[in-house]
Amino acid sequence: MVTLKWTPLALALACAALWTGCCPREPVTPHPVAVGSGIYLDRTLFDRGRRDTIVALAAEAGLHWTREEFLWEGIEPEPGQYSESLLERHDARVVRLAAAGIQILGLLDYGVEWSTGGGAPSTDTQRADFARYAAFMAERYRGVITHWEVWNEPNLGKFWRGTPDPEAYGLLLRATADALRAVDPQIRVVGGAISGCGRDDRAFLMRALAAAGPGACDIVSIHPYSGESPWDRSDEPGDVCALRRQLAEAGWNVPLWSTECGHSTCDAGVAVEEQPGLLVRMYLSQFAAGIENVLSYDFVDDGVDPLEKEHHWGMLYHDLEPKPSLRVVGVLAGLLEGAWVQERFQGGGVEAVRFEKEGGLTLWAAWAGAEYPENDPLASRRGRVFTLEGLAESDTVTALDLHGRVLEVDREGGVVRLETGGSPRYLFIQSAGG
After folding, report:
1. Do 146 and 181 touch, CB atoms closer than 8 A?
2. How crowded is residue 283: how many other Cβ atoms within 10 Å of its Cβ?
3. CATH: 2.40.50, 3.40.50, 3.30.870, 2.60.40. Which one for 1-33+338-434?
4. With 0-12 CB in 10 A as exposed, 13-18 as middle and 19+ as buried, what is 78?
C-alpha cells in the first residue's frame, strides 16, 4: 500500500486517551476506513499513455481503492465468445492498478443484445447468462480482484435500462453472487449500488435484498450524493442512519460502502476552490456515519463543457492537470492509511471525528459544521474552537491544515485549542509514554 506522501516527515506519533472540553461526544462502532475514487480506466483502454499518467497520479495521491467497470456487452459480444483483444486491454489496466497498490472494486453491469436485448436481465435464463459472465471475470482476475459489485444504480431506469424492478435486481444479485462464490468462496460480493439513500431508495434496496435472500451480498453499497451542500449538513447523514437501522432490523449486519459521491465543479456546481474542503468533509462525515469505504465519483473529469455537470466531478481536469482537491485528498488518504474511526463530536458549531491507528496513533479532524466563511477573523469568538483537555505536560501536539502544512498550536498546559473553519484541520497527539 502506498505510504503517506504529503504530510510532514516528522509525524511519527502515538497517542494517549483524550477528553474534549465540550460535549456531546458520540461513540462510533469502530471500523476500518478507506479513501478511494472511481478512476474508471475502462475509459482509457485505447490510450496507454493517458492510462499510465492517471495511475501514476492516483498512486502518488495514495488512494486506497478504485471502482473499475467491466461492461458485459463489449467483453462477451456473442454467447460464450469473449473478446480477447479487449480483455487484454482490461488485463493491462488491472495489472497497472495492482502494481500501484490500489485495490479494485470490480463493477459488473449492463445488458447485451444477444441475451437481454440490451436491457437488464429479467428472466432466469438471462440472469444465468449474466452470472456465467460474472464467473468468467472472477476466474480471470482470481486473487487480484477480490470484491465485485453487481450492477450500477438499479433503482434508476437510465441504468437498469427499463422500469426499475427491485425483485428482479434481487434475483440477479443472488444468481451472480452464487456464481462468483463458486469460483472463489473468498470473493466479497457488493450489492445495492443504489442512487441516493432517501426513503424511496431505501425501500427499493430493502425489497431487493429480501428477494435476494440472506447472505446474497457481503457488503451493501450506496451513492449518497449531497449536491452542492456539505455532506454533513445535508439530509444524507440521517438517511444513512435510517438505512443502517433498517438493515440491522432485517438481519443484514454487513459493512456499508459509498461507491459514488462527490461535488461537481461545473458552472452550476461548486467552485474549484471549494471542492477540496467539501470532499474531505464528505469522506470524514461518511466514515463517522458508519461507512467503511468511500469512493468518490470520479477521479478524472469526463469532459470540458462548463455547463455539463457530468463532466466535472474529478480531482483532475480532463487534460489531467490536477485540481486543488487532488492534493488534499492525498493528504487525507495518507493520514488515514490503516486507520479505524472511533468517535465523533458535535457541539458549539464544531464537528470532529477521531481515528486511531496501530501503535496508538490518534488523529482528530475538526471543522466548523455550519455554513462558514473560512476567512472570518471572528471564528474563535463565535465558539468555533475545538478543545482537547487532559493532556500531560510532556505530550506532544502537532496541528496540520487541509494541505498538510504545520500550524501553530494554541496550547496552555493540558489544554489544546484548534480554531476551525469550513475546511477540516487535523490534530495529532503523542504521549510521552508512546
Report:
1. no
2. 27
3. 2.60.40
4. exposed
pLDDT tens readout for residues 127-136: 999 999 999 9
Average pLDDT of the segment spanning 319-334: 98
Cβ atoms of residues 365 and 45 within 8 Å:
no
The pTM of the whole model exceeds 0.85:
yes
C-alpha distances out from residue 100 to 260, 290, 326, Å: 22, 28, 17
Domain coordinates of the chain in residue numbers?
1-33+338-434, 34-335
Q: How many residues are there in the chain?
A: 434
Kindly list the distances between the CA atom of residue 65 and the CA atoms of 97, 197, 204, 298, 388, in Å, as whole numbers in the listed order: 9, 22, 27, 12, 32
- 415 three-state secondary structure: strand
CA-nearest of 337, 357, 379 to 429 is 357
Res. 375 pLDDT band, cuts 50 70 90:
low
Task: Please determine, for residue 264, whether its predicted confidence score (pLDDT) is greater than 70.
Answer: yes
Give per-residue pLDDT as tens, 83-134.
999 999 999 999 999 999 999 999 999 999 999 999 999 999 999 999 999 9
Quick check: 72 and 114 in contact, CB under 8 A? no
Question: At 5, is the pLDDT very low, low, confident or very high (cuts 50, 70, 90)?
Answer: very low
CB 428 within 8 A of CB 11: yes
Q: Which long-range contacts (CB under 8 A, 24 or more apart) does 3-6 make?
A: 3/62, 3/334, 3/337, 4/62, 4/334, 4/335, 4/337, 5/60, 5/61, 5/62, 5/330, 5/334, 6/327, 6/330, 6/331, 6/334, 6/403, 6/404
The secondary element (H helix, E strand) that includes residue 244 is helix 236-249
CB atoms within 10 A of CB 267: 12
Q: Which residues does residue 257 pair with via DSSP β-bridges, in sequence order?
A: 221, 293
How many other C-beta atoms can be found within 10 angstroms of the C-beta atom of residue 113?
A: 11
CATH of domain 34-335: 3.20.20.80
pLDDT at 379: 54
Residue with cell 449486519: 253
Is there a common fold for 1-33+338-434 and 34-335?
Answer: no
Rounded to whole angstroms, what are the CA distances from 410 to 299, 350, 383, 387?
A: 36, 17, 15, 10
Angle, helix 166-183 to helix 124-140, in steps of 10 degrees: 40
The residue type at 263 = H
Kindly state the average pLDDT of the residues 231-253: 96
Residue 10 has pLDDT above 50, yes or no: no
